[in-house]
Specification:
This protein is an alpha+beta fold and 500 residues long. The chain has helices at residues 2-70, 124-140, 152-164, 169-182, 202-206, 236-303, 306-310, 312-343, 356-370, 392-408, 440-443, 467-477; strands spanning 76-83, 88-95, 104-108, 189-194, 211-212, 216-217, 227-232, 351-355, 374-381, 387-391, 413-423, 426-432, 481-487, 491-499. Among the domains are: 250-326; 348-499, Heat Shock Protein 90. The strands form 4 sheets. The chain has a 5-stranded mixed β-sheet, with helices on one face. Strands 4, 5, 6 and 7 form a 4-stranded antiparallel β-sheet that branches. A 3-stranded antiparallel β-sheet has the order 1-2-3.
Length: 500
């Protein structure tokens, strides 16, 4: 049932992730398309403003030149006569030096009416009239791309200036850049000018440009530069700058949701594995309890036999068996209780200085007496130290458990090396065996409670998955550390670091 629920939860999590990713991709693609359209719109508006600005700059230049020309008394005569009907002065501009040039320009100003001073050094009225006419010619002529011959000479002069200051991309570029900058567009571009414009831009795209603006007339008739467009490279920088917040939030959302789902799935798998481990532990611990209980039951039953009671040797042997098995049960119960106490942090650490050489040798001798297989335990102290400040009982339990594991998982001819060294501020005890080893994937888990390396449905080596967890808790209580190195078929090394 749990397995089915876990599979359903995994499918739901995967479906949610796929849906979330699909939605994010959909939103990002749509936003990208919208941003691309926005880029095209903004670039076209900027280009239109740039073209208008370039024309405005040319008009400014020509307007100033015309105004100065009109003030040249050798070229033009500005006169004024008073109109009694309208009660204002009418100003006339006439070209000098050519009697055949009958063209004149006469006009009145709605907000200005002054006679031309007789004092020729006072040019204020002439400047005002010349400025107004130059502005009029700018608005009616240049900005409309036509030239009206208000006086023959003035028309010719203005035409010359218009041809001299024609449309130029070198003048357009800085003006265009201003409007692009205002829109935060920094995409590289170039201009293309043609005599005949076409809506087919395939040729332009073949040149490596991703986007081209609409065409604007240059009104340049002296050569083939009749239409101008701006060609842009990939607008990715602009699009990314506009999409930065969306991309970041989408990425953050995916990371957070993915992280939560990974944690959830890891927790689920851990709970699932813990359930399997606990079931395995219950099976093993049941076996561990049943064996000594059965042995004690048989021994007690035998002791009730009058024949056995009459034989002192057999009687004592059965009593010893019963006592040993009860001690085994007691040790097992102590281990389970001690693990719970250590995990709660309630176990007191009663540190004292001990001669660790003697303690380790006692442990080694005890294991040599208990084991029935051929075994050599080689002990070496390279630390040049004799004492260490630890809880003696916990120190003994930790070393004993490591050596016990080394013996259990070694072959019939076990070779175990116990080496003591001093490394910085720690006394390290290395226990190395020539046993069956552990797969790399299991190394990080063997110190967890109840965990036993999977060997199928059978466990040829007796155990209950408490020993190494017991060692882990002891090392934590002593502010020490532990490390395991192992390879399948090549043995295992376990190092315990005790603070000095």
């Amino acid at each position: 049932m749990m397995r089915k629920s876990a599979n359903i939860l995994i499918i739901i999590c995967f479906s949610v992730m796929v849906t979330l990713l699909s939605l994010q991709v959909y939103w990002i693609v749509n936003y990208y398309k919208a941003t691309l359209k926005d880029f095209e719109k903004e670039v076209n508006l900027a280009f239109e403003d740039g073209v208008k600005k370039e024309l405005s700059l040319r008009c400014d230049t020509i307007q100033n030149i015309i105004e100065k020309k009109l003030l040249d008394t050798n070229a033009f005569l500005i006169s004024a006569r008073f109109d009694k009907k309208d009660k204002k002065y009418i100003y006339t501009v006439r070209a000098k030096g050519n009697e055949k040039d009958k063209f004149t320009s006469s006009f009145s100003l709605s907000d200005y009416s002054k006679a031309i001073p007789k004092n020729k050094s006072d040019t204020s009225v002439r400047k005002h009239v010349a400025g107004h006419l130059a502005l009029l010619m700018r608005e009616e002529d240049m900005e409309s791309h036509v030239i009206y011959y208000r006086t023959q000479k003035l028309g010719i002069f203005m035409n010359e200036q218009a041809n001299k200051y024609q449309f130029d991309t070198t003048r357009l570029r800085p003006a265009f850049n201003i409007y692009l900058k205002a829109r935060n567009i920094k995409t590289p571009y170039n201009f293309i000018v043609k005599k005949i414009d076409s809506t087919n831009n395939k040729g332009i795209k073949k040149m490596g440009y991703a986007f081209v603006t609409r065409a604007f007339e240059t009104y340049r008739y002296t050569d083939d530069q009749r239409y101008v467009r701006a060609m842009f490279k990939s607008p990715s920088a602009y699009i990314l700058s506009r999409m930065a917040l969306l991309l970041f939030s989408s990425f953050a959302m995916i990371v957070i949701v993915s992280g939560c789902m990974i944690i959830l799935l890891k927790r689920l798998f851990w709970e699932k594995r813990l359930s399997v481990i606990k079931n395995d532990f219950i099976s093993n611990i049941t076996h561990e309890f049943k064996t000594p209980i059965s042995t004690v039951s048989v021994a007690i039953e035998a002791l009730n036999n009058p024949i056995i009671r009459s034989d002192d040797d057999k009687y004592n042997r059965y009593l010893i068996h019963a006592k040993n098995e009860i001690e085994r049960l007691n040790i097992l119960v102590d281990k389970v209780l001690n693990i719970a106490i250590y995990e709660d942090g309630k176990s007191p650490v009663l540190k004292e200085k001990i001669l660790f050489d003697n303690k380790i040798m006692e442990i080694i001798q005890l294991h040599e007496m208990k084991t029935r297989k051929g075994m050599v335990i080689d002990y070496k102290n390279d630390s040049q130290l004799k004492e260490i400040n630890v809880d003696a009982t916990q120190f003994q339990h930790a070393i004993s458990n490591i050596i016990d594991n080394a013996i259990k998982y070694s072959g019939e001819e076990a070779l175990i090396k116990v080496t003591v060294q001093k490394k910085e501020y720690f006394l390290t005890i290395l226990v190395e065996d020539n046993g069956i080893g552990i797969a790399e994937k299991d190394i990080s888990a063997v110190f967890e409670k109840f965990y036993r390396v999977s060997t199928g449905n059978s466990h040829p080596v007796k155990g209950h998955g408490l020993g190494l967890n017991y060692v882990k808790q002891i090392m934590h209580l002593h502010d020490g550390w532990y490390k395991m190195e192992s390879k399948l078929g090549k043995g295992t090394k376990i190092t315990l670091g005790w603070p000095l």
